[in-house]
Task: structure prediction
Amino acid sequence: MPSAGFYAIEGHRIRFGRDGEWYSDGERIANRRIALLFSRCVCRGPNDDYLLQMGDERAPLEVEDTPFVVRQIDGDAERGFTLSLNDDTREALDPASLRSGRDNVLYCRVKGGEYEARLLRPAHYALAQWVRAEPDGGFVLRVGGRRHPIAPR
Result:
């Protein structure tokens, strides 16, 4: 008897978009519970690729930019910041991991530094109020009295 799992998506192209949405064969997956399930099943494959894994079953995953996104940021420069990720987990921002990419998109490391996450616009704007420009043209985030330069990605 076959096990339940990825047979339903076998042959379909599953992609996680830079917008934080899930897609199957180019169509957005509108079911939030399926999207959340997929977000919780992301893992790194043996060739540094990405997979969806449920139990012993795996399916290839296309990642447009990063395998996780930051939907919201709470906190302040004194206490630090808490990230809300697309898999419904919350974790502390490691300010030393912040990077600035193309078009000033912000990125940080999540899941113990194992994965990179893209800050979606609401999270980006929430954090931007604490970011300061440096005389050399760079940017810095001060958290808990410590200075954290935002390096290029």
The mean pLDDT is 93. The chain has two domains: 7-63, 68-152.
